[in-house]
UniProtKB/TrEMBL annotation:
<dbReference type="InterPro" id="IPR007698">
    <property type="entry name" value="AlaDH/PNT_NAD(H)-bd"/>
</dbReference>
<keyword id="KW-0547">Nucleotide-binding</keyword>
<dbReference type="InterPro" id="IPR007886">
    <property type="entry name" value="AlaDH/PNT_N"/>
</dbReference>
<dbReference type="InterPro" id="IPR036291">
    <property type="entry name" value="NAD(P)-bd_dom_sf"/>
</dbReference>
<keyword id="KW-0520">NAD</keyword>
<dbReference type="Pfam" id="PF01262">
    <property type="entry name" value="AlaDh_PNT_C"/>
</dbReference>
<comment type="function">
    <text>The transhydrogenation between NADH and NADP is coupled to respiration and ATP hydrolysis and functions as a proton pump across the membrane.</text>
</comment>
<feature type="domain" description="Alanine dehydrogenase/pyridine nucleotide transhydrogenase NAD(H)-binding">
    <location>
        <begin position="148"/>
        <end position="310"/>
    </location>
</feature>
<dbReference type="Pfam" id="PF05222">
    <property type="entry name" value="AlaDh_PNT_N"/>
</dbReference>
<dbReference type="InterPro" id="IPR008143">
    <property type="entry name" value="Ala_DH/PNT_CS2"/>
</dbReference>
<feature type="domain" description="Alanine dehydrogenase/pyridine nucleotide transhydrogenase N-terminal">
    <location>
        <begin position="6"/>
        <end position="139"/>
    </location>
</feature>
<protein>
    <recommendedName>
        <fullName>proton-translocating NAD(P)(+) transhydrogenase</fullName>
        <ecNumber>7.1.1.1</ecNumber>
    </recommendedName>
</protein>
<keyword id="KW-0521">NADP</keyword>
<comment type="similarity">
    <text>Belongs to the AlaDH/PNT family.</text>
</comment>
<keyword id="KW-1278">Translocase</keyword>
Length: 376
């Protein structure tokens, strides 16, 4: 019989995204799969149950999860829900199995073959499957809107009968996908924008979006497009030059992150306290500890006249487009192994071999077929 695909209803607090849309459901059906969507799974993202039914999916209340061969989610299900999955099933989502012992144990107890999409190699071929990039774009956009709302000033320059209003000076820390989207958004709002990143190769990207590259004279170019750790001497120079510069900045949006590690501390307490009253810091890196030493994840507060915000799960605030992008990423990934109504894994494919958890032994056979494989 055809592979059974289930789209979970997210249970994490505040999570509005969904792992499949009516559009991607149709494409899964065209690949020979049978798709079940849990009722209400797409409501938070604007996709009603009837839209999934019209696309050809079955709807249920989540009572038959143990029948699914392939399970799609955004955030990891809690251990109790993992315990209800079919033994040996395949789970795809942003799972972070090693971040929670109970979650990892639950996955292993059910012999769940997991594909944590945050582990996906960031290669040219994988771009259409890169959930970190697609969701970071939405997060960067929303972070600037939050900053504009918190700031007690206009972003654009205005000429009024009461005089000229100077544009806000906005600094975006980090020029990854989220940072570049933040730069573009702040520019659209009319701010005077600078971008700061320790990787010198980001200068061209920042300037292409209309921002000014903040050069502090310290380079941390590393491998794979990520930054390396700075030496103590380099960090001291960077910190002093940055502290001096921040005294004239109105808004900082922090986006710097290192995959799999705590966010680097870039804005010290002294730097924040040196900013002028009415300044705003929005720390997009709050979920992994924050780029600012004062950040409190999930909280917005005043510190000596400076407003500091540490919003969580910003991509969920743009649930419609974030879900559309995420669902397409997921579809492109599962298309690597959903073929002719069956699950067929080619372990010579580095995108599968380097994403799967637990990691497979190197002597594993190149191609395996799931128990669900067979005629549709």
């Amino acid at each position: 019989m055809a592979v059974e695909v289930r789209v979970l209803k997210e249970t994490a607090s505040g999570e509005r995204r969904v792992a499949a849309t009516p559009e991607t459901v149709r494409k899964l059906l065209a690949a020979g799969a049978q798709v079940t969507v849990e009722r209400g799974a797409g409501i938070g993202a604007g996709f009603v149950d009837q839209a999934y039914a019209d696309a050809g999916a079955r709807l249920d209340d989540g009572d038959a999860r143990d029948a699914a061969d392939l399970v799609l989610c955004v955030q990891p299900p809690p251990p109790a829900d993992i315990a209800r999955l079919k033994p040996g099933a395949t789970l795809v989502g942003m799972l972070q199995p090693q971040a929670d012992v109970a979650r990892a144990e639950a996955l292993q107890a059910r012999s769940i073959q997991s594909f944590p999409l945050e582990k996906l190699p960031r290669t040219t071929r994988a771009q259409a499957m890169d959930v970190l990039s697609s969701q970071a774009g939405m997060a960067g956009y929303k972070a600037v809107l939050i900053a504009a709302q918190l700031a007690p000033r206009f972003f654009p320059m205005l000429t009024t009968a009461a005089g000229t209003i100077r544009p806000s000076k906005v600094l975006i820390v980090g020029a990854g996908v989220a940072g570049l989207q933040a730069i573009a958004t702040a520019r659209r709002l009319g701010a005077q924008v600078e971008g700061f990143d320790v990787r010198p190769e980001t200068r061209e990207q920042i300037e292409s979006l209309g921002g000014k590259f903040l050069d502090l004279g310290v380079s941390a170019a590393g491998e794979g497009g990520y930054a390396r750790q700075l030496t103590d001497e380099e960090r001291a120079v960077q910190q002093q030059r940055l502290a001096d510069h921040l005294k004239g900045i109105d808004v900082i949006v922090c986006t710097a992150a290192v995959p799999g590690r705590p966010a680097p501390k870039i804005i010290s307490t002294a730097m924040a306290e040196g900013m002028k009253p009415g300044s705003v810091i929005v720390d997009l890196a709050a979920e992994t500890g924050g780029n600012c030493e004062l950040t409190r994840p999930g909280d917005t507060f005043d510190h000596g006249g400076v407003t500091i915000a540490g919003p969580l799960n910003l991509a969920s605030l743009g649930a419609v487009h974030a879900s559309e992008m995420y669902a397409r990423n997921v579809l492109n990934f599962v298309s690597l192994f959903v073929r002719d109504g069956a699950l067929q894994f080619d372990w010579d494919d580095e995108l599968l071999a380097k994403t799967v958890w637990p990691e497979r032994p190197s002597e594993a056979a190149p191609v395996t077929e799931s128990p669900a494989a067979g005629a549709a």
